[in-house]
Amino acid sequence: MFDHNAKIDIGLNRAVEQLMKTAGEDHILPIVHAGVPILRRRAVRYHGQLSANTLSKLIDMMHTTMVEAPGVGLAAPQIGLGFAFAVVEDHLRDDDEDPREIAEFPFHAIINPVYEPVGVETRSFYEGCLSVPGFQAVRQRWLNITARWQDEKGHQHEERLHGWPARIFQHETDHLSGELYIDRAEIRSLSTDENLEDYWAEDPVPTAAAEELGFAI
């Protein structure tokens, strides 16, 4: 649970309410892009600085913004807020043989998330980021993790995640430490979305891209 003795930060709460007003009638918040300092700062642990109503509205708007982008995750720093929370959601595709092991990942907020690897297996796939629009690169990540987080009520959760949901959780949690996926990506794999579609999208495993572009997987 969040600290019941913590006081709501009135000034901060008001600032967040003002930010949400910029979303307009469509409830879509502006996403900040690489180069904005807040993306490189460690997020502050959330312990109840916002009112329950403001937090609930913010989570809903982040969800709407993520879906519209479109994306499968959105961290608070990506909308200019330096708090340690994010929203995530992904759904099954038609291809059951997809080597990325995409699985149903229901929508939820992850507050103060952390993870640790389970085992030593990793996988390398192309991934992108809403704060680095128009590009994707190959990033190695843990195949299995233990994920821990709090929900908007402050209740603690722990779950073992595998495959693509594990990648999403790692990506969004890394945002909260000031990291972008490109920091540890195979930089020679960097591709525009259009070139990825034209050259490398046929096989999700980037074997051909690694050979042609000159990087290791």
TrEMBL record:
Keyword Transcription regulation: no
Example GO biological process: translation
Binding site residues for Fe cation: C129, H171, H175
Similarity comment: family membership: Belongs to the polypeptide deformylase family.
Keyword Protein biosynthesis: yes
Lineage: Bacteria, Bacillati, Actinomycetota, Actinomycetes, Bifidobacteriales
Full protein name: Peptide deformylase
Cross-referenced PANTHER family: PEPTIDE DEFORMYLASE (PTHR10458), PEPTIDE DEFORMYLASE, MITOCHONDRIAL (PTHR10458:SF2)
Cofactor mode of binding and number, as noted: Binds 1 Fe(2+) ion.
Required co-factors: Fe(2+)
